[in-house]
Amino acid sequence: MGEWAQFRSRRASSSHGWSGYGGQCLGAYYSRQDPSGSSSGSAVAASLGLAMGGLATETSGSIVLPAEKSSVVGIKPTLGLTSRSMVIPISIRQDSVGPVAQSVKDAAILLSAIAGKDTNDNWTSVQPFDQVPDYVKACNYSAFKGARLGVPRNGINYFLDNTTKPIMAAFEAALDLIRGSGARVVDKADFARFDVPAFSRNSNIVMGTDFTAGLTAYLKMLKTNPNNVKDLADITIFTKDDPREEYPDRDTYVWDSEFDSNITNESKESYDAYEANRHMAEEQGITGTLDRYGLDALVMPTFTSFHLPAIAGLPIVTVPLGFYPPDTATTMNLKGTLVNVAPNVPFGIAFIGRRWSEETLISLAYAFEQRTMIRKKRNPCIIPTFELGDRWTNAYQADISLPSTDSNQTLILSEATKAIVKRSMSNLFSTRSWSWSLLARADSSL
Question: Residue 353: how many CA atoms within 13 Å on its side-chain side?
Answer without folding.
Answer: 24
